[in-house]
Amino acid sequence: MLFLARGQTACFWWVMIIAVALWAAAPHPIAVQADEPAASNDDVPAPPPAAAEDEPSESPAPTTTPDEDDPAPAETPPPAGKEEDDPPPAADSDSSDQPAKTDQDQPPAGSNSEAMADDSAEQSADASADSDAPGKLPGAEDTDGERHGEPHNDDIEAAPERLQATMLEGVRPGETTREQLHAAWGEPKHVDGGPSPRETFDVQPYGKVRATIVDDVVDSLAISLPGPVSIDEAVRQLQLEDLESVEVLNDAGKLVGQAYPERGVMFGFAQKTNPPSVFQIVIEPVDAQAFLDRATKRLDDRYADCFADIQQALKLAPDAVRAHWLHAELTLRAGDLEQALESAQRTVELAPGEFEYRLTLAKVQATVGDFEEAIKQVSAVATATEASPIMAARAQLQWGDYLAARERHDYEQALRKHQAAIKLAEKLISSPKQAERVAAKELLVDAHLSVAHDIGWGHWQHKSKVVPKWIERATVFADDLVAHEGATVETKFRVAERALAALAGISAPPDASPWVRAVNELGQRMLERATDTSYRAHLAWRLALALGDAVEIEATRQKLDRALALGNAAMEYFEQGAEAGKQLTTRDYLRGRLAYRLGAVFAVQKSEHERAIAWYDRAVPLLETPVPPFAVDCGKQGELFVSMAVSYWETSNRREALRLTNQGVKLMEQAAGQGLLAKPALAVPYSNLASMHEQLGDMQEARRYSELAARYEPKR
Fold it and tell me: What residues have CB less than 8 Å from 410, skipping those under 6 apart?
């Protein structure tokens, strides 16, 4: 619903939709012809050429359930083919965990007002935000005591009097009494009785206006225009030029109107008019839900504006749970993990039965590294019999992601969960409900990319052939979302960045240049269009991570100059995105790992140790900061120090070389004791220490480490 209904008001919106159909069929005068085109989605790119012969020509995307005996997709692109040495994933044993379908997760209706249902309580416009209101957006500065960030629309909180319902010929919903109504408009032409009477008036030049009375005060005005008018004309007549509207969609995703939250105004559009024209206008007291609807639209790339709408909604309705949920999603993207966790926990406390809120809490918990609690949340949703299929699918997807990301990466179990998510979601891609259909396709993009990551980083054969097939399937769904569901370029960018993350796990990766090019081109395009500071930081951080994966791939493929160029670009993006990454527990490790990899290009692959040291000097202090176990095991961390120590030794910085080697050996010994590292891997650092001590004249230590190295050297 677009507005919160009050009192005993009936479901007027459906009456309005029926009226549209009747109006379209009947002859009628036209007051003002629509003469301006509706706003277009300029940032939605045209669909690319078909990537596969079964790419959909209509909205539903093709089904792609993978064969349980092969990690390759079962349909287009063709299966990789089961080979005798392929380790098949175990048969999916989680079918008992899959919830039955329910209708609980219905997409929100794009409907109005007085119009709308009787199941919502009135929200007071005088309520002020309390101590539970979210704090300011990261990086945003206060401009006064109440306003945070830099909202795009200066009218959002310009002055209290701007937040009031539009006055129509001396009558303002929420303020005008019935007696004042009659004094201004005369006696009604018709009265529908009941607890909330409706009185119909002829008000020129608007035509028939119906006023709903609640507790002797005008609660809403519904204006039935004598003929359709253009949106621009309606905006001009009601003086809404400086305000930003939010579209109103029905369940099928069709545009049926637009609302102006600051003034409590909603336009109802006539059917089959292009551009849309207005045939009915509803005016109500300013309502929190309209701000939340607009905040949802702004969430993707207008963080400050979204934040302003959330703050305004909480002033109108301090207990609006969805406002706290939106704040959790917003601050998670902006990198304020403390605020995100606080808001996510509050939503679950206020509405424990809302599965969407629990999945958001799990996302935040996983981001801060608490995978145990995150898995508890998603497993409870995945196994809840009352969870809708799309919620269950999302829970399975996140469950698999957390199994793969936690300290002991369980890629085989993760793949099972991701397969379960695909099975649930693929049944919904032909849903007549747009929200459900789009959610299913979005999930299928992510689930296929997650499977690609499971295979790329797990223990599988023929990964360089199989992983690209899963990425290609994700591309098919992404193209379908852009072509048929109005998705933006961000969907394709997400495919490219996650494709690189999956390919980076392969020891002999295939050519990744298409994905590197896509990340660069799409990322730059998104950055050029972005006007929001926090969103730009978010994009820059993602670009840095994606290009870091590209460095790993290109260096492994011996494309060294390309790797260095990408690495330098990634470092610049890390600086630009510093605000978005400052609370991540992996922040220093990720930057240090990239600096190490660039140094290794010079040291290991070019034998240019002096140039390597320039990067290692940046990497060492970052890599020496505490790193969470899920980010990298201590054995791999130790190997980095041992590797860098060689360059320091070669450049005569023997003290630093010895220190780093000792530090690396301790970490590798710890990993070997935990079963995370094969003990023969210790032979190399022990041999290095033996050689270092021998050259330093410490023969006793040299003999000791020589004996340790001999103990672990492979037998010939």
Answer: 403, 404
Contacts of 529 (CB under 8 A, 6+ apart): 43
Residue 35 pLDDT: 33
Residues 6+ apart with CB under 8 A from 96: none
Distances in whole angstroms, Cα of residue 41 to Cα of each of 482, 489, 492, 526:
11, 12, 16, 15
Task: Give me the DSSP letters along 352-404.
Answer: TT-HHHHHHHHHHHHHTT-HHHHHHHHHHHHT-TTS-HHHHHHHHHHHHHHHH
The most confident of 70-79, 283-292, 394-403, by mean pLDDT: 394-403
- Give, rounded to a whole angstrom, the gap between the first and last alpha carbons of the chain: 74
Whether pLDDT at 40 is above 60: no
Work out the average pLDDT over 36-42.
Answer: 36
DSSP string, 558-586: T-HHHHHHHHHHHHHHHHHTHHHHTT-TT
Phi first, then psi: what are they for 277, rounded to 5°? -125, 155
pLDDT in tens, 644-699: 999 999 999 999 999 999 999 999 999 999 888 899 999 999 999 999 999 999 99
Q: How far apart are alpha carbons 233 and 135 in whole angstroms?
A: 39
Could you report the per-residue pLDDT of 324-371, keeping only the tens digit for each? 999 999 999 999 999 999 999 999 999 999 999 999 999 999 999 999
d(CA 687, CA 701): 11
211-225: buried (b, 16+ CB within 10 Å) or exposed (e) per residue?
bbbbeebbbbbbbbb
The two structure tokens encoding residue 119: 């199941």
Phi, psi of 374 (to 5 degrees): -60, -45
- Residues present in the chain in total: 716
* Residues pairing with 168 in the sheet: 171
Can you tell me the distance from the alpha carbon of 20 to that of 144, in angstroms, rounded to the nearest whole number? Answer: 45
The confidence band for 72, taking pLDDT boundaries of 50, 70 and 90, is low
Q: Confirm if 368 and 585 have CB atoms less than 8 A apart.
A: yes
Q: Summarize pLDDT for 586-603 with one digit per residue, the tens.
A: 999 999 999 999 999 999
- pLDDT value of position 71: 62
Long-range contacts made by residues 158-167, C-beta under 8 angstroms, separation at least 24?
162/262, 163/125, 163/262, 163/286, 163/312, 164/125, 164/263, 164/264, 164/285, 164/286, 165/263, 165/264, 165/265, 165/283, 165/284, 165/285, 165/286, 166/238, 166/239, 166/240, 166/263, 166/264, 166/265, 166/283
How buried is 558 (Cβ within 10 angstroms: 0-12 exposed, 13-18 middle, 19+ buried)?
exposed
Comparison of pLDDT for 279 and 104, the residue scoring more: 279
Beta bridge partner(s), residue 258: 247, 267
Cα dihedral 694→696→697→701 (10° resolution) = -60
Residue 113 pLDDT level (bands cut at 50, 70, 90): very low
Output the pTM of the full model.
Answer: 0.77
Residues near 424 by beta carbon (within 8 Å), at least 6 away in sequence: 98, 389, 390, 392, 393, 396
Lowest mean pLDDT among 66-75, 440-449, 503-512, 543-552: 66-75
Q: How far apart, in whole angstroms, are the C-alpha atoms of residue 577 and residue 545?
A: 10
Tell me the backbone φ, ψ of residue 138, rounded to 5 degrees: -55, 135
Q: Which of 568, 469, 560, 478 minimizes the C-alpha distance to 518?
A: 478
Classify residue 421 by burial, with Cβ atoms within 10 Å: 0-12, 13-18, 19+: buried
Residue 713, burial from CB neighbour count under 10 angstroms (0-12, 13-18, 19+):
middle
Gap between the Cα atoms of 620 and 661, Å rounded: 12
